[in-house]
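Figure caption, in words: inputs first, then the predicted bound structure.
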Amino acid sequence: MRKIAFYGKGGIGKSTTASNVSAALSDLGYRVLQIGCDPKADSTKNLTGGRSVMTVLDAIRQKGEENVIAEDILYRGYGNVWCVEAGGPTPGIGCAGRGIITAFEKLEETGAYEICKPDIILYDVLGDVVCGGFAMPIRGGYAREVFVVSSGEMMSLYAASNIISAVRHFGKRGYASFAGLILNRRNIPDELDLVNKALEELGGDLTAVIPRDPAVQEAENLGKTVIEALPGSAQAACYRSLAEEILKRSEDKEEEDGGSMYGAFM
Ligand code: ADP
Ligand code: MG
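Bound structure (adenosine-5'-diphosphate present):
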């Protein structure tokens, strides 16, 4: 099994990139589980025809902690990609990150992983602050390879830098590692140079450059990924080659230390 995380600043294109990669991987025959770890809860919406699925936290609020079953929180999207949204707390009450921890616990308790039997788990995580719950995929042994999605904009590179530091400091026993930066272009001047310069300082390399392309909005308006809506487009080819690159840069292995398969160090 591969366990991959996409981190990055809010609005930078994590979910767009993640769901296109999930769709491309499912086209290659992999069983994929995409877990949205953003209180916005829209990670998987382009895999599910644009509809919002019940989040883990909403399911808990509506049914009660003990009554949630796997079927409440697991949805099948395009190409049978399994979709989960952790969800967020009631605004003003509770910590957004705590929701992620609760969601991970619920997935395990309800036997959701045994239903999905994923070859690849893709965590889509908001990386503006890498504290508490948002660091959970890194600190808890959930994700093995961490890819950071960034543009060349300063705030986005600043978030990237924080995420990379967190992976280096808190990736327990070196379990999680920074696997590369995905440049999702905003087309600011000298964007590629800015990103390469930042990478020289941060250490690590550029996994892929994704162009800014109106095909993304066109597909999004249909509630679809580019892979589904415009499979013959250049942008779809770009996401397919990113998916191949991620396969090359991630390890496919079982857990060997007797920890839980999904959160190795919980
Ligand atoms: P995040 O998950 O990081 O918050 P999203 O994936 O939701 O960000 O992206 C925010 C918006 O940016 C999306 O609504 C999408 O339309 C747009 N977007 C993302 N990547 C691209 C791209 N490569 N080309 C054009 N638009 C993009
Ligand atoms: Mg998102």
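The domain at 2-253 is CATH 3.40.50.300 (Rossmann fold).
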